[in-house]
Design goal:
There is one protein chain. The chain is mostly helical. The protein has one domain: Rhopdopsin 7-helix transmembrane proteins, CATH 1.20.1070. The chain has nine helices and no strands. The longest helix has 38 residues. The chain starts with 11 loop residues before the first helix and ends with a helix. Its main location: membrane. InterPro entries: RTA1. One of its GO terms (cellular component) is membrane.
Length: 277
């Protein structure tokens, strides 16, 4: 039995505006990244491109109903599935950058130099497992191979949740230690680190909810309830990931780190000059 691509007729009227919104959000992120030279946001912008192209592929499939072509199906399946792993990579690097900027290395249970490496390695492992499972699933011809592909994707999602859960624990411990530190580190206290942490928590929760949804979806299998209704992918995947994009447009990490840091440094320089006259 060949793998059935969709258990419903994909909606073009839903896919096009979502693809456009992801595309627009990604363009804004690219502009913000280039202006602020916040290169740690490169994975996030690539994830946005994945999302936009993924939903464009869903639109292409919607025009082919019921004779869906496998190429756009594989494109939408893999790109939408993998994008959040790229979002997560930038979130990991943002925390590492925040710790270094605050000079608060002792408040982190993992050294910043290792923090990014550990979590990005976990992210890459999750990415590869999901990518392999998605490709395997799309070309499956028997139920055994369908099950194998779904299990590979599940394994990748579990790895993602494991590392993301650990990241949230590391973040919370760092946050608590910062509050307990005398004067919250005078050297970096002018940077709104608490607001930055709230942004990271918000985006992390959105990605975690989406990942849990995906786990439940693949546990149920291709014949499960979640894969029988297109609404779920837009509510528990597209909307949540678009939310991540919007949050980080409004509160881009560069606005809270480098720009704030530069602004306060200029203020201090002016104060020093004034005191010399």
């Amino acid at each position: 039995m060949a793998y059935k691509l969709y258990n419903y007729d994909p909606s073009g009227s839903a896919a096009i505006p979502i693809a456009a919104l992801f595309g627009l959000a990604t363009v804004v992120h690219i502009v913000q990244m280039v202006r602020a030279r916040s290169w740690y946001m490169i994975p996030f912008t690539v994830g946005g491109v994945f999302e936009a192209i993924g939903y464009l592929c869903r639109y292409i499939n919607s025009t082919e109903t019921p004779d869906w072509q496998t190429t756009p199906y594989i494109g939408q399946s893999l790109l939408i599935l993998l994008a959040p792993a790229l979002f997560a990579a930038s979130i990991y690097m943002t925390l590492g950058r925040l710790i270094v900027t605050l000079k608060a290395h002792s408040n982190s249970i993992i050294r910043p130099s290792w923090l990014t490496k550990i979590f990005v390695i976990g992210d890459v492992l999750s990415f590869l497992m999901q990518c392999g499972g998605g490709g395997f699933l799309a070309s499956a011809k028997t139920q055994d191979k369908i099950d194998m592909g779904e299990n590979m994707i599940l394994g990748g999602l579990f790895v993602q949740i494991l590392f993301f859960g650990l990241f949230i624990i590391v973040s919370v411990i760092f946050h608590c230690r910062m509050h307990a530190s005398p004067m919250n580190y005078v050297g970096g206290s002018r940077i709104p680190w608490a607001r930055c942490m709230m942004v990271l928590y918000t985006v992390s929760c959105l990605i975690m909810i989406r990942s849990i949804y995906r786990v439940v979806e693949y546990v149920q299998g291709s014949g499960g309830y979640l894969q029988s209704k297109e609404t779920f992918i837009y509510v528990f995947d597209a909307a949540l990931m678009l939310g991540c994009c919007l949050v980080l447009i409004i509160l881009h990490p560069s606005k809270m780190l480098s720009e704030q840091e530069n602004r306060y440094q200029k203020t201090e320089d002016l104060e020093m000059l004034a005191s010399n006259y």
